[in-house]
């Protein structure tokens, strides 16, 4: 909070020798790259001392020499209580509950319940996300109103409710004994915060349909990184569907509508923020996969990640003085308060529906439901907020989703075939 005016004042005055105006300070403060570095500095003020403390306890061999009432807490945070589970095929997913004596009608009801819960949670979440980040509050005939600008506060609201829901669920249900060092959740938490922040900020520069399609095309950079870094092998249908996704996204982005407004034009900043979202989100999922080698449930993972997410975001908001500003904005605009709370409820409920759907029906069914959700989200955004899509852009969207469904179908066929392979053979690794 105190360094920001100094930084803003020094850069222009060193170049021109003139005093900086308040309007210029506001424009610098609203620039996404500046806010990104300010937020990162706030996270570093928590990460760096924590890293030094962890190294101190490890060098002192605290696990053998430590005593006192703080010993259990430090042991849980720094060392953990159990070794990794080396015989775990896919710890990232909970074991799927196979229907034993349930009727077909009951299974259909469960599937409809999961689909309706996921669609309701994430479609509402998407509509509210675009409303909060692109529209003004308190507008009247004489007053244009004001926009909410602090994406980090929205991330904090989402994480504090997810932390509460996961904590209550862990307290009320039987969970595996937790063994992972708590500090390891901080890596996934930090990347998760940054990916969510990039996602919110990108809506200031690109349309929501563009953001949805960019998320759908995330498989392309994942395959590229897997090929270059891990030397993974892919099937022909994976290359085919990745090419189709690339063509479909290109058709949508390059199509132009005569009445497209400035707010829906894809800008360079929006592309950079989307790239940041994809990079941080990819790291989050890979790090969580590594953490699942410890014995834990998905809800325990949700709880651990959100503990650090709350710590990082509230610390950074307090250091910047943005927490009080955001709370004052909520006090001025009750509509924004309702939107922010509902946004957080949808995010937390959506995560629980994800765990339940994968547990009951597997990842393939979940992927189909979420792919349909992306298509519905684009349609809703165009209907509610008036985004214009040309014929070529519509064909591009159709190509993307056709490729996504083709991937789901081909992957399910490959899994069935891999079960019939001889014991010495292993299937090709997939993304």
UniProtKB/TrEMBL annotation:
Signal peptide limits: none
Q: What is its main location?
A: membrane
Record-annotated membrane-spanning stretches: 33-57, 108-128, 153-172, 236-255, 261-280, 301-318, 338-356, 363-386, 392-410
Family annotation (Pfam families): UAA
How this chain sits in the membrane, per its record, is: Multi-pass membrane protein
Q: Which GO terms describe its molecular function?
A: 3'-phosphoadenosine 5'-phosphosulfate transmembrane transporter activity
Q: Which GO terms describe its cellular component?
A: endoplasmic reticulum membrane; Golgi membrane
Q: Which family does it belong to?
A: Belongs to the nucleotide-sugar transporter family. SLC35B subfamily.
Instruction: Please report the name of this protein according to its UniProt entry.
Output: Adenosine 3'-phospho 5'-phosphosulfate transporter 1
Which keywords has UniProt assigned to this entry?
Membrane, Transmembrane, Transmembrane helix, Transport
Where located?
A: Membrane
């Amino acid at each position: 909070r105190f360094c920001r005016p100094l930084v803003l004042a020094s850069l222009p005055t060193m170049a021109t020798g003139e005093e900086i105006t308040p309007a210029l300070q506001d424009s610098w403060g609203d620039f996404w790259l500046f806010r990104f570095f300010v937020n990162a500095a706030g996270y570093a003020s928590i990460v760096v001392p924590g890293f030094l403390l962890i190294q101190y306890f490890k060098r002192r061999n605290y696990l053998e020499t430590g005593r006192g009432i703080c010993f259990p807490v430090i042991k849980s945070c720094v060392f953990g209580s159990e070794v990794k589970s080396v015989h775990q095929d896919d710890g990232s997913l909970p074991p799927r509950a196979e229907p034993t004596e349930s009727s077909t009608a009951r299974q259909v009801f469960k599937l409809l319940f999961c689909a309706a819960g996921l669609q309701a949670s994430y479609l509402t979440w998407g509509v509210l996300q675009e409303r909060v980040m692109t529209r003004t509050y308190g507008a009247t005939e004489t007053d244009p109103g004001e926009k909410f600008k602090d994406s980090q506060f929205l991330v904090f609201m989402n994480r504090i409710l997810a932390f509460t829901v996961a904590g209550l669920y862990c307290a009320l249900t039987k969970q595996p004994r937790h063994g992972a060092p708590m500090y390891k959740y901080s890596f996934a938490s930090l990347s998760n915060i940054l990916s969510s922040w990039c996602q919110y900020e990108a809506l200031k520069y690109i349309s929501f349909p563009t953001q949805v399609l960019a998320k759908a095309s995330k498989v392309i950079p994942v395959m590229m990184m897997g090929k270059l870094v891990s030397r993974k092998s892919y099937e022909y249908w994976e290359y085919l569907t990745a090419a189709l996704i690339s063509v479909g996204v290109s058709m949508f982005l390059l199509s132009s509508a005569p009445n497209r407004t400035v707010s829906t034009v894809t800008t360079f900043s929006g592309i950079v923020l989307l790239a940041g979202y994809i990079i941080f989100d990819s790291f989050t999922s890979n790090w969580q996969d590594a953490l699942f080698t410890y014995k834990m449930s998905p809800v325990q993972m949700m709880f651990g990640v959100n503990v650090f997410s709350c710590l990082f975001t509230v610390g950074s908001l307090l250091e910047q003085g943005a927490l009080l500003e955001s709370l004052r904005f909520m006090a001025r605009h009750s509509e924004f308060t309702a939107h922010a709370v509902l946004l957080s409820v949808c995010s937390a409920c959506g995560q629980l529906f994800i765990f339940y759907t994968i547990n009951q029906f597997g990842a393939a069914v979940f992927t189909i439901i979420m792919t349909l959700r992306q298509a519905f989200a684009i349609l809703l955004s165009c209907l509610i907020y008036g985004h214009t899509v040309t014929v070529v852009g519509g064909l591009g969207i159709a190509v993307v989703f056709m490729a996504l469904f083709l991937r789901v179908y081909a992957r399910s066929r490959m899994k069935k075939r891999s079960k019939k392979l001889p014991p010495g053979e292993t299937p090709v690794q997939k993304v």
